[in-house]
Amino acid sequence: MSHDAFITREATEGASAGPLADRMVAVKDNISTEGVRTTCGSAMLEEYVPPYDATVVEQLKKAGATIVGKTNMDEFGMGTTTETSHFGPTTNPVDDERVPGGSSGGSAAAVAAGEADLALGSDTGGSVRCPAAFCGVVGIKPTYGLVSRYGLVAYANSLEQIGPLAPTVGEAAELLNVIAGADERDATTRSQGDDADYASAADGDVEGMTVGVLTDLVEGADDRVTAVFEDSIDDLATQGAEIREVELDSLEHAVQAYYVIAMAEASSNLARFDGVRYGQSGGFEGDWNDAFARSREAGFGPEVKRRVLLGTYALSAGYHDKYYKKAQDARAWIKQDFDGALAEADVLASPTMPVLPPKLGESLDDPLALYLMDANTVPVNLADLPAISVPAGTADGLPVGVQFVGPAFGEQRIVRAGSAIEG
Amino acid sequence: MSNGSVDPAEVRHVADLARVDLAAEEIEVFSEQFAAVLEYFDALDEVPEIESEPDLTNVLRTDEVCDGLTQREALRNAPDTEDGYFEGPPVG
Description:
The structure holds two protein chains of two kinds.
Chain A lengths: L5 E3 L15 E5 L26 H8 L3 E6 L33 H8 L5 E6 L5 H7 L2 E4 L19 E6 L2 H11 L30 E5 H5 L3 H16 L3 E5 L7 H16 L18 H12 L2 H14 L4 H25 L2 E5 L15 H6 L5 H6 L3 E9 L2 E8 L5 H11 L2
Parallel strand pairs in A: 2-3, 2-4, 7-8, 7-9
Antiparallel strand pairs in A: 1-3, 4-6, 5-6, 5-10, 9-11, 10-11
Chain B lengths: L7 H10 L6 H18 L29 H5 L5 E2 L2 E2 L6
Antiparallel strand pairs in B: 1-2
Helix pairs in contact in B: 1-2
């Protein structure tokens, strides 16, 4: 049964040996693949064929992986359901009437349906963890700077990281081993991941680990989600973890701060799409402003236009201090709050998504309601921290994910905590 | 900001700044949706001013000539080219 997980199915063979030999890996369609169309789920890039590979794609090939195709996504990563794709929605392999989550919905669905062993997504505000939770697979958002963004088509570059999706914590960590590390072509990368081994941390040993429950993110969740989450926390306690409650006052401003910053960065990043070097031409009538505006009207879908316009508004004269500057204050506050909490606890825990996967078409009409679904995932992007989503069970037959947050470059800790509750 | 909608003239102005043409219906829908989103953003007023000293490091490299894209590769995705150049709309 097809879930429309792929925009382009085209196999690319990697090296004959390596840690990912014989593994089939799906790659989100905003990650550049030399000679293979990379659309970002947008009409703007429907025919765009990159002349080079992203660093993570080079790493996959070197590790022996076979890339099986490019996966569907919300247009330029802007969405939480994979319904804003120009190429139509992907369905959730667990329940075909429901969304797979987003924006890396194709990558999660491909793994959940067994159409790929592993996948890469990108996570700007939850875009790896949300679809992982909704499809019942594992997803990791690495610390900012652990994985190279060279060749990732930028949406909000101060927030996003490429991350792995896999059926198990151990396999996700194996893929992270391959893609982590400094890259001279991305000056924001750090060297902490150069020789690190994340997979060996998937040993399930949480004896003596301190787990802080982020109560602010539990209270807002659907009761059915909360019940599954609390069972997982009880399970960790039974295995010897110490459980504490953590309150962070800054978190109520996370969604506001995230959307102001993401939209502001998007308005700048997407200015490059003018239909001249690539993308849909706006023709040659009138002057260049007219032609660019026509190119962007035709090439961008409604959610992209919404975010580019709101971002332009938030950065415009008279509003910059009111929105953008305050959002940066909120970001710094959230970082401080997390640093404090992680001085007291080894990892922090919450439900990954506050809701169960919605039905297709149910959530598109009200943008604000959709933004609020990201309440539990956006804080770590603002704080540059690593987080994992692990399947914790089901409610009404639908997957529920638990999220663990660790300190910067503390991926081993979240892998260890995650491996203790899976299966 | 009123509860109902943003002034459509303001939406048109921002669309103009962002170089995005909008259909009349899009302006109408965005006017309403933007009001709800911007009203939600107003809660950022409650955020205190935060002193933060981010841990910043200069990342430098030597400026050496190395292989880049060929002209043919660079032009391959352009909708229109002429004599090895990108062809763009008239300027002003």
